[in-house]
């Protein structure tokens, strides 16, 4: 039985039949990792904020947002997969835990119009531009997901939004092409951007405007990534890590699709021999700007995950470590510094298998199993993997076997304690998922 009222950071919500947030997840909403100055994620956030001195910086907007702001305002179709209850944590039918920082685009673009200062007051710097025209949002975001070393149901994103008035673009372009200007403000991006029918420009935009915005976006993102990776390499060299000598960071732009940008790309950067997916980005849909009352403005946006980059910069091997309160983790970092994490001893893992028949005629969602395990085992569950699957040829019944790897980051676990947890997991699977144990 679900509680009928939910408390999230001082707000009270009525639960309904959409509610699927769990106590384990609600606990995370109060952890505020981005506000602990010596936490790697907060250090990375500050590094990025510094690269954008003319943008307003937001990092204290709570994660309870309306379904409208998270999806509808951004043009997500009614049947978009991201809206499903197996992917998203719903507070109730109308409210959810934001799945991305883009949830605040419309809200922040609108702020400052109609005298609404409620969100603007969260902005941390007095940037040169009005705070709703250029901004960064760093925040915790929530997605139902599998359990392994690189996935966690809570992670962090940084959104960047940059808008220009059309007159401003003309002025910048005129200045750049005048004979006595020495530097062009448009980026010198080496590749030619192909805007194709699969990744089209919007009819509201001229070719010139799109070209300007794309160049500006790519240059801005390039600079940010190069600055940060250069700092990371320098820090590692100072720490005596001589195998880190990379000085150039080639990037590539892969065509992508988002409901709220067109054209859209994923930015990837070559770091230590691997193409790393950094972020999604693109030219903002004009409808969002006009819904915000900015009919004369155009803009670009990006959104990227902080964990992947932080794991690389700080050498953190497991995403769960960011949530550790063990001083052997937290004491290794200091504000403004990129220290390389020295792992403490890995404790022996304790794998347990569970085999069961899927509910006949009923539904089974893997993410329901993941949340059930998280609820009972917390961060002791290091990974959950499907290891066997078959359908009985005669009865048509389907069987699955999952291996739950239990492992603590800071101590040895006993078989007794894990057996007890595993028994509870098995019992709850029967009760809550309608499966039959084998
Ligand atoms: N919100 C997108 C995501 O979470 C990323 C994105 C942001 C893409 C802004 C384009 C523009 O995947």
From TrEMBL:
<comment type="similarity">
    <text>Belongs to the class-II aminoacyl-tRNA synthetase family.</text>
</comment>
<keyword id="KW-0809">Transit peptide</keyword>
<keyword id="KW-0648">Protein biosynthesis</keyword>
<feature type="region of interest" description="Disordered">
    <location>
        <begin position="175"/>
        <end position="205"/>
    </location>
</feature>
<dbReference type="GO" id="GO:0000049">
    <property type="term" value="F:tRNA binding"/>
</dbReference>
<dbReference type="GO" id="GO:0005759">
    <property type="term" value="C:mitochondrial matrix"/>
</dbReference>
<dbReference type="GO" id="GO:0004826">
    <property type="term" value="F:phenylalanine-tRNA ligase activity"/>
</dbReference>
<comment type="function">
    <text>Is responsible for the charging of tRNA(Phe) with phenylalanine in mitochondrial translation.</text>
</comment>
<dbReference type="InterPro" id="IPR004530">
    <property type="entry name" value="Phe-tRNA-synth_IIc_mito"/>
</dbReference>
<dbReference type="GO" id="GO:0006432">
    <property type="term" value="P:phenylalanyl-tRNA aminoacylation"/>
</dbReference>
<dbReference type="GO" id="GO:0005524">
    <property type="term" value="F:ATP binding"/>
</dbReference>
<dbReference type="InterPro" id="IPR002319">
    <property type="entry name" value="Phenylalanyl-tRNA_Synthase"/>
</dbReference>
<keyword id="KW-0436">Ligase</keyword>
<dbReference type="InterPro" id="IPR036690">
    <property type="entry name" value="Fdx_antiC-bd_sf"/>
</dbReference>
<keyword id="KW-0067">ATP-binding</keyword>
<feature type="compositionally biased region" description="Low complexity">
    <location>
        <begin position="175"/>
        <end position="190"/>
    </location>
</feature>
<dbReference type="InterPro" id="IPR006195">
    <property type="entry name" value="aa-tRNA-synth_II"/>
</dbReference>
<dbReference type="Pfam" id="PF01409">
    <property type="entry name" value="tRNA-synt_2d"/>
</dbReference>
<feature type="domain" description="Aminoacyl-transfer RNA synthetases class-II family profile">
    <location>
        <begin position="51"/>
        <end position="327"/>
    </location>
</feature>
<keyword id="KW-0496">Mitochondrion</keyword>
<feature type="domain" description="FDX-ACB">
    <location>
        <begin position="345"/>
        <end position="438"/>
    </location>
</feature>
<protein>
    <recommendedName>
        <fullName>Phenylalanine--tRNA ligase, mitochondrial</fullName>
        <ecNumber>6.1.1.20</ecNumber>
    </recommendedName>
</protein>
<dbReference type="Pfam" id="PF03147">
    <property type="entry name" value="FDX-ACB"/>
</dbReference>
<dbReference type="InterPro" id="IPR045864">
    <property type="entry name" value="aa-tRNA-synth_II/BPL/LPL"/>
</dbReference>
<keyword id="KW-0547">Nucleotide-binding</keyword>
<feature type="compositionally biased region" description="Polar residues">
    <location>
        <begin position="191"/>
        <end position="200"/>
    </location>
</feature>
<keyword id="KW-0030">Aminoacyl-tRNA synthetase</keyword>
<dbReference type="InterPro" id="IPR005121">
    <property type="entry name" value="Fdx_antiC-bd"/>
</dbReference>
